[in-house]
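Quick one: structure tokens for this chain, please?
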Amino acid sequence: MKTVRVRINPSVPASLALGRVDPARVDATSEEDIAAHQAADEAEALQDAAKFARRVRKRLGLSQSEFSHRIDVPLDTIRNWEQGKRCPTGAAKALLKVLDKAPDAALVALS
């Protein structure tokens, strides 16, 4: 595959690629449209997090109650993650990533 490098100078409009942004469409976008797009993006992110949490638990072969006990998180929290009502954040997200990449080591460290 051939790599082509292109220099773009934002101060020179002629150097910008055509067709990347439709100014008329951007100008026609209302605040309500922007809010609707943001809400849709947030809902999609929650569903992605829910799928990830469910996949990690199933890869470990644990039920929701067993999983909540092993990682010391309330069962309701696990259910909320998997139903997309809540999204794991901070340490919980990091723990899920470790459980996904190195499940044996993570479970040993947690016991």
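The mean pLDDT is 86.
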